[in-house]
Amino acid sequence: MERRIVSLVIVLLMILAGALFAGCVEEQPPAEKTTEELAVEIVTLLMEQQYTDVYGYFNTSIRSQITASQFQSLWEQQVINTYGTITGIIDTRGGNESGYQTVYVTCSFSQEGSMDVKMIFDAQQWVLSLTVVPTEVPYMPPSYVNQSLFTENVITVGSGEWALPGTLTIPKGTGPFPAMVLVHGSGPNDQDETIGPNKPFKDLAWGLATQGIVVLRYEKRTKQYPEEVTAMLQNFTVQEETIDDAIAAVSVLYTLPLVNQSQIYVLGHSLGGMLAPRIASQDHRIAGLIILAGNTRPLEDLILEQTWYLANLSGTNQSDQIAQTRELVEKIKTLNFSDDELVFNAPKSYWADLAGYDPVATAETVHLPLLILQGLRDYQVTMDDFSRWNKTFYANQSVLLKTYPSLNHLFLAGTGTPTNTEYMIPGHVDEQVLLDIASWIAQQGTR
């Protein structure tokens, strides 16, 4: 569902483009070894094309949603066809990310050079996710950023059990400045909304601060507290996943003397864009919404469409995968599954909550200025979604709608047929998007 739509990197084990939740206690853990040793074993099996043996390392939440043959097919189509086979192991490094042991195995690939096979393990050392990502390189700011014009402070969003680490990017000067909260797409995003080598939220924060706008970004709750979220899944909705923390972030901005309280905006990307009207409906302090690739159709419909799109790009028969996805989508439409069952890694409570939400209708009721942006090369949230925004608001003088021919779901420029592999290519949020957002905010300040 979009990362669901989260890791937009070659996601092999997080259904579609990422998992909302991960974690399941296994009855019998693997043999006692370090996670780095296990990761090397798994990569060695991948080199030997022993896919069934690799599948045996996955935890039950993964195995309940993908078969061994489907895993093999995904690996061959999305990895081998793109990067070639693994020809050797160069290095390993491990660490703790959001409470989970994570191991990166840097490998040489026959067509691409070096890439990392990233594995996340649960407490019993079962594999929660396995992805192929670029070997990490230092972040290089886009040309439109001037670091001499702003500073950054570490800040906390919320309090108590759900307190989240965040970063406040502040223009130099006395202010008061307009300010913005960045709201993530689906999945356990970090505050930069890191996807492969790309950090679109960091681009936005630094670029907008260069233009004189305060920006607050923060770790998403499902990334910072995966175990705690897993423990409450039966009652989990987008309220807990996204909305409560976005409102807490608005509260942080509202208390800062350097922020113009009448100019606090919410920028939502993808799922965050879809939920932006619902966030605004719960907080009268929000002055306007910026919606980047915000879907207007149900998430489950997007999941099916993305499955079909990527299957057709592969050029191989993926009818079984599409049929399985259709069955899961039908479960969501009818809510015909138990309270403790996960469908696309989300519980019944999550889908039931979204079934009653219409982002466009809600946007009409909040009566706020809107900036709605869409990349024409976006295969995840498409012009089918944008057309409903446009049909509803094209004559509204408080709403600006704009499309960008060369931009994808991350608002990075590209050419040709859009694919999930292009998220592996380093890039930056397009400068025109940055300028359009800054210009729109400046115009709101004159009204």
**What percent of residues are in strands?**
15-25%
Helix content: 25-40%
Q: How many independent structural domains?
A: 2
Largest sheet: 8 strands, mixed
SSE string = EHHHHEEEEEEEHEHHHEHEHHEEHHEHEH
Number of strands: 15
Contiguous helical run count: 15
Strand order of the largest sheet: 6-7-9-8-10-11-14-15
- What's the architecture of the largest domain in CATH terms? 3-Layer(aba) Sandwich
Low-confidence stretches: 1-29
CATH topology of the largest domain: Rossmann fold
What's the Cα radius of gyration?
21 Å
Q: Name the CATH class of the largest domain.
A: Alpha Beta
Roughly what is the average pLDDT, rounded to an integer? 89
Outline the secondary-structure elements.
Elements: E1 10-11, H1 35-47, H2 51-55, H3 60-63, H4 68-83, E2 86-97, E3 100-109, E4 113-121, E5 127-133, E6 150-157, E7 164-171, E8 177-183, H5 200-210, E9 214-218, H6 221-224, H7 226-231, H8 238-254, E10 259-269, H9 271-281, E11 288-292, H10 299-314, H11 319-334, E12 342-343, E13 346-347, H12 348-355, H13 359-366, E14 370-375, H14 383-393, E15 399-404, H15 431-445
Parallel strand pairs: 8-9, 8-10, 10-11, 11-14, 14-15
Antiparallel strand pairs: 1-5, 2-3, 3-4, 4-5, 6-7, 7-9, 12-13
Helix pairs in contact: 8-9, 9-13, 10-11
